Amino acid sequence: MKTRKINLLFGEIAGIILSIIVLLPFLLVLFNSSKKSADIVISPIKPPTNISQLFTNLGNVINNQNFSYWKSFSSSLIITVVSLALLSLFSGMAAWVLVRNKKKWSSVIFMLFVAAMVIPFQVVMLPLLSTFRSLSSFTGIQFLSSYTGIIFAYLGFGGSMSIFILHGFIKGIPYELEEAAWIDGCSPEGTFFRIIFPLLKPVQMTVLILNGIWIWNDYLLPSLMLGLNGRIKTLPVAVSSFVGSYVKQWDLILTAALLAMIPIIILFAFAQRQIIQGMVEGAIK
Amino acid sequence: MNTQLKRTFSLIEIIVGLCAMAFALYLDFTGNESSYRGILLAAGLVLIVAGLFILPTKKHRSIVNVLFLLPVLLTFFFTVLNPFILGIFYSLTDWNGIKFTKFVGIGNYITMFQSRDYVYSFLITFLYTILNMIFVNIAAFALALLCTSKVRGRNFYRASFFLPNLIGGIVLGYVWQFIFNKVFTAAIAGSQSMLTDPNLALAAILIVSTWQYAGYIMMIYVTGLQGVPKDIMEASNVDGANWWVALKRIKMPMIANTFTVCMFLTLVNSFKQFDLNLAITNGAPSRILQGKAVLSTEFMALNIYKTAIAKNEYALGQTKAVVFFIILAIVSLTQVSINKRKEVEM
Predict the structure, then answer these.
(1) Residue B1's pLDDT is what?
(2) Distance CA B270, CA B331 (A)
(3) What does A40-83 look like in DSSP terms, one character per residue?
(4) Nearest neighbour of B87 by CB, restricted to A97, A124, A217
(5) Is B148 within 8 Å of B226 (Cβ atoms)?
(6) What is the ipTM of this complex?
(7) Which of the residues A123, A132, A134 would you substitute to probe the B interface, choosing the one with the greatest number of B C-beta atoms within 10 Å?
(8) What residues of chain A lie within 8 A of the CB of B27, using their CB?
(9) Which of chain A's residues have a Cβ under 8 Å away from the Cβ of B309?
(10) Residue B275 in contact with partner chain A when CB distance is under 8 A
(11) What is the pLDDT of residue B97?
């Protein structure tokens, strides 16, 4: 019993030390965002002496023309929220149709989506740009450097995995439920929206979290489609273009990094359990 | 009467929609660049969809099926399927990102394998992938053991180990660039930054990717370890198995599946590493290889990106991307076949 206690104590000490090591980079960001450029040069390790410098730096970076925090933050938010809403709705609809029609065409389409999950973004990114360019000139709708285009792209890329996860879940919903609604005179679309869609809530959580973290943090797709200095910038793109214009000005760069991290850290503080669970479930499926 | 009204109404909607789309296309072919062309097209589509939706017919269920599949299929076709097929085709031409003039067969593939920087990046990516797989899984498994033991504060440890994984690789990469260039050199006075030495720069990326990714893989191991039945662990305790024996003989064999999942997940994700690579080193520093300089930490994803975007060699970049895809496809097929074999055994 006594050795057990000692072992647990060792575990606790290890846990605390490891947590500190893992969290240290975040602490360093906070420390150095609260310093003047010259103070970082003197020592990047020492805690800041004057906290008010943090607010000076935050003010400078938020209003900086190259970063324009609130603008990039809202662009990221619009892209993420609209993509997620449409993704969960459209994938749910498609997955339901694919599950409830046991025909050759439905299994072919499903297999197509499953196979597409292997395709890395790199192999489609260059032709994607030319495809979207021709789509723009053909339809007259702007696909590159526009919200429409990037949300369209996220629906295409996020659709496969979302359908795969939802497909597995809908298979487990008893068909009798739908038959009963059908007999009571409910239309197929009514059956889906009133009965099936509400039942998808727990699994939609996984879909939303997995896609949400991916879309919010994604860099390559928005940097190619929106451009590094385009009209619309997501947060990762804004950070990257900010770093490009203020090379080695670490007080500003780290403040920008801090601003880019804060939204997710706040979200994580409130929905920690759901986020971890959603991401792990998505990986296992 | 009511159905009759509905039918007329829906037919009118469909016809108006068709006209709107046809007119939009007519504007397109006449080269009219008016800004309402796109809106007209979209509005036409919406009208047709709405019309089909309320059209009273026996085929209503089939219409719903098609309309429900349409959004995903449409976006999937234009963002994945069409670019994918085009991409394979472009890799066989002299495509410059906008148009191609001639078919070059496997010329791009030959150029690619003859170029020193590509072969190097190919090898360094494999090295990085294997090392990262080992480091991440060892760290993650050890952390998972810690977080499933009875220590106090384990929920806090879990959350803090998981946190780096939620922040984008680009932002974290810049933060770590600062840590390597400023903090470490200040902490060990007079030392050179790790990022100036080819081998240490690779080690630096490995440190960051393990730091970022281990918490995620840890949670998958935690889920696996929590699935080990408690009565088996108690029985082994009664039988006098110590901690190490219980781990080696019971826990590890029982979560063999979790090991496979985690191995493949880290394998694929390390192989696709891009964000950290771009933000921490951007390929630098150079390494002298047979008298010529190559970028020492340029992994395949970054190499593809730079070939196309920075050097403007789109066809060559696309060719590299196709090979990149083939390797990933082989890995995935291996994983599927391993899983199938396991299912048969069970």
Answers:
(1) 54
(2) 12
(3) HHH-SSSPPS-THHHHHHHHHHHT-TTT-HHHHHHHHHHHHHHH
(4) A124
(5) yes
(6) 0.92
(7) A123
(8) 140
(9) 224
(10) yes
(11) 85
CB contact (8 A) between residue A132 and residue B78: yes
Q: What percent of chain A has pLDDT over 90?
A: 64
Which chain A residues are Cβ-neighbours of B169 within 8 angstroms?
217, 219
And the tokens for A2?
Answer: 């006594």
- Across the interface, which of A19, A120, A284 has its CB nearest the CB of B261? A284
| Of B201, B146, B155, nearest in space to B176 by CA | B201
Which has the minimum average pLDDT: A263-267, B19-23, B109-113, B152-156?
B19-23
Res A160: pLDDT: 94
User: Is A279 in CB contact (< 8 Å) with chain B?
Assistant: yes
**Residue B230 scores a pLDDT above 90:** no
- Sign of the CA dihedral with A135 first, then A140, A144, and A146 last: negative
Highest mean pLDDT: which range of A5-14, A34-43, B207-216: B207-216
When CB atoms are compared, the residue of B41, B97, B243 closest to A140 is: B41
How would CATH label the architecture of B110-345?
Orthogonal Bundle (1.10)
Give the tens place of pLDDT for each residue, B77-126.
999 999 999 999 999 999 988 888 888 889 999 999 998 889 999 999 99
Question: Cα distance from A24 to chain B (closest Cα, Å)?
Answer: 10
- For residues B169-192, give the mean pLDDT: 90
Query: Which residue do the tokens 């499933």 mark?
Result: B148
Ranges for all domains in chain A classified under CATH 1.10.3720.10: 69-284
A270-275: long-range contacts (C-beta < 8 A, 24 or more apart)?
A272/B159, A274/A205, A274/A209, A275/A209, A275/A213, A275/B166
State the amino acid at position B58 in one-letter form.
K
Per-residue model confidence (pLDDT) at position A281: 85
Contacts of residue A97, Cβ cutoff 8 Å, sequence gap at least 6: A106, B64, B65, B68, B69
Question: Which residues in chain A are contacts of B314 at CB distance < 8 A?
Answer: 126
Give the predicted TM-score (pTM) of the model: 0.92
Candidate from B147, B170, B183 with C-beta closest to A236: B170
Do A97 and B68 form a contact (C-beta atoms < 8 A)? yes
pLDDT at B346: 57
User: For chain B, which residues make up each domain, given as ranges?
Assistant: 2-105, 110-345
What's the CATH architecture for A69-284? Orthogonal Bundle (1.10)
For chain A, positions 128-167, list CB contacts with chain B under 8 A. Answer: 128-133, 135, 138-142, 152-153, 155-157, 159-160, 163
For the residues B196-222, what does the mean pLDDT come to? 94
By the CB < 8 Å criterion, does B339 face chain A? no
